[in-house]
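Researcher: Next sequence.
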Amino acid sequence: MTPLKSSPRLLSFCFKLVLVLLLTYLLVSGFYMWMIGGTAIYVSSAVLLTITAYVFKLGKYQKICSVLNVLISAAALYLSTAHLFFSPIQFLIFLPALFFVLLAFVHLNKLRNLFKILILISLFIWSGIHFAQLKQLQAYYKTQDTGQSWQQYGAL
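Model: Next structure:
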C-alpha cells in the first residue's frame, strides 16, 4: 500500500473541520446556556476564539489579535466572578487563547503543529467542562419544578 501524497492537505482539512465544528458547538451551546441563566463568558470567549481563528486563516494581524483575545478574555473572566454559577474551572477557557498566542509567535513548523494539536485538545476539554456545567444548570432547574410550562425554565 502506498502512502497518500495529499496527507498534509488532508490533515490540514481535518484540523480546520474539527476546529470549525468545536467552535460552532461552543458558540451555540454557550448562547443557549446564557439564555437559560448561565454566564455569558462561554459565548463571549467562543466569539473571540472564532474571530482569532478567522484572523489566522487570513494570515494578517495574528499576533495582535491573539494577544487582544487573551486580554479581553481575562477581563471578561474577571468581571464574571460575581455570577452565581462561576466555577474556578472556568479558568481553563484560557488554554485555547494562550495556545493561539503561542502559535502566533512561533515560526518552527514542528512547534506550530504541536500548538495546533494543543488548541484542539484544549477545545475538547473546554467543551467537556461546558457540557458538564450545562448539565448542572439543567439539574438546578429540575429542582425548581412547580408544574408550570417549559417557558419558565428557558426551554429546558
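Model: The mean pLDDT is 78. The CA atoms of residues 90 and 129 lie 8 Å apart.
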